[in-house]
Structure to design on (411 residues):
């Protein structure tokens, strides 16, 4: 068969696609994490209790579950680009609504809507990019995922600065997510639909569901969902509550907690660069297993030190949390997103990716709620819980995912 009939020709350079994908993931991760900076001020502004605030933080995952499941199916049926446009418009509208909220219920509604946009973006961006970036695909996808770290880091930094504007500073914090979304919206208007999807597309939702749940794909639906679920338990708990963890552990203000979170999050930048350099050499499976195991170790150390009220300095807390984020970012942060894409046919790639991400988002919601419950008793309890989930992630990766089954799209 002529390979030119099965591989699309790129309209733009690979660099342009990578830039568009990276900015989109930056904005999605920024919108995910920006609420973490605002939680403490929102609690005071609406006179809400800590339980209500924890629920507010978790609502983005409720939206992301909905967005991930629906966007995968819809992108397989109707195409990738139109839903990517809806996704960005959701960020813009819901971000403005969040900033203008007059009560906690209104804010909860709009944060759920932001979550729907996040769920859409992580599914469809990587699905689309995997089809327009043919060469060095695994490494390119890891590079795009790298910008999720910048999005979260920027949310802590910019959010901390905006909080200095006064008691209403949290409104500017949430508005910033809407304004950032205008950049990828303009860039995505220049893209064209994936030719690989057009060649492989299936004509009905029913047929897509039948195909993605067939015996051929069923194993992938399970084996990639479990580690994604386990990773997101810890990752999203740390993303949303890192400033709060530092506020309580270091006994500092909301602004200081946000800036301390920036220092911790900086550890993920060299980790992501390292992952980009070695992912094709080491392979996604072993990189994921190593990341789970070492993250478990560092979270466990700091969790036990806080649990037993051992003498621990602020610098030690920041370094240990930073190392935990380093190894998570180097491994499962990238691989849980990339591995499903490598194993689904383009005709159901969006649906498969959406299903696996949906379970990841369920893990994020589950983790945030449980971490909140543990956190009320003490941060040490919560970190020990996250350490255990990472250890389970290591076990699942080593004993359930077979490296011989990994497929390289660039191969």
């Amino acid at each position: 068969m002529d390979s030119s009939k099965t591989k699309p020709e790129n309209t733009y350079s690979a660099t342009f696609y990578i830039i568009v994908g990276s900015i989109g993931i930056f904005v999605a991760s920024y919108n995910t994490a920006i609420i973490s900076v605002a939680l403490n001020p929102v609690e005071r502004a609406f006179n809400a209790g800590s339980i209500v605030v924890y629920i507010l933080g978790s609502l983005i995952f409720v939206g992301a579950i909905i967005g991930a499941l629906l966007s995968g199916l819809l992108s397989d049926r109707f195409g990738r680009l139109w839903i990517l446009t809806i996704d960005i418009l959701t960020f813009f509208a819901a971000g403005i609504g969040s900033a203008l909220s007059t009560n906690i219920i209104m804010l909860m509604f709009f944060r759920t809507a932001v979550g729907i946009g996040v769920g859409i973006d992580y599914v469809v961006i990587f699905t689309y990019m995997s089809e327009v970036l043919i060469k060095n695909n695994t490494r390119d996808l890891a590079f795009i995922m790298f910008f999720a770290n910048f999005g979260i880091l920027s949310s802590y930094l910019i959010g901390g600065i905006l909080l200095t504007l006064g008691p209403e500073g949290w409104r500017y914090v949430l508005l910033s997510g809407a304004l950032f979304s205008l950049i990828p919206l303009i860039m995505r208007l220049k893209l064209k639909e994936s030719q690989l999807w057009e060649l492989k597309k299936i004509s009905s939702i029913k047929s897509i569901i039948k195909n993605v749940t067939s015996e051929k794909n069923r194993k992938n639906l399970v084996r990639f969902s479990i580690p994604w679920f386990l990773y997101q338990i810890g990752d999203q708990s740390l993303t949303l509550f890192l400033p709060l963890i530092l506020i309580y552990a270091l006994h500092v203000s909301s602004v200081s907690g946000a800036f301390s979170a920036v220092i911790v999050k900086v550890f993920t930048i060299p980790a992501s660069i390292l992952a980009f350099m070695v992912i094709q050499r080491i392979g996604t499976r072993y990189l994921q297993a190593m990341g789970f195991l070492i993250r478990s170790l560092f979270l466990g150390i700091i969790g036990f030190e806080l649990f037993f009220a051992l003498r621990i300095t602020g610098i030690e807390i920041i370094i240990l949390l930073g190392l935990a984020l380093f190894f998570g970012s180097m491994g499962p942060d990238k691989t849980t997103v990339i591995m499903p894409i490598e194993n689904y046919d383009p005709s159901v790639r969006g649906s498969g990716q959406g299903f696996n991400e949906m379970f990841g988002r369920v893990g994020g919601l589950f983790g945030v709620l449980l971490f909140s419950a543990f956190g009320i008793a003490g941060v040490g309890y919560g970190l020990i819980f996250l350490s255990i989930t990472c250890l389970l992630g290591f076990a699942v990766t080593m004993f359930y995912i077979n490296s011989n089954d990994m497929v390289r799209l660039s191969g």
About this structure: Residues 14-45 form the longest helix (32 residues). The chain has a mean pLDDT of 86. Residues 14-193+217-404 form a domain with the Growth Hormone; Chain: A; fold (CATH 1.20.1250.20). The chain has one domain: 14-193+217-404.
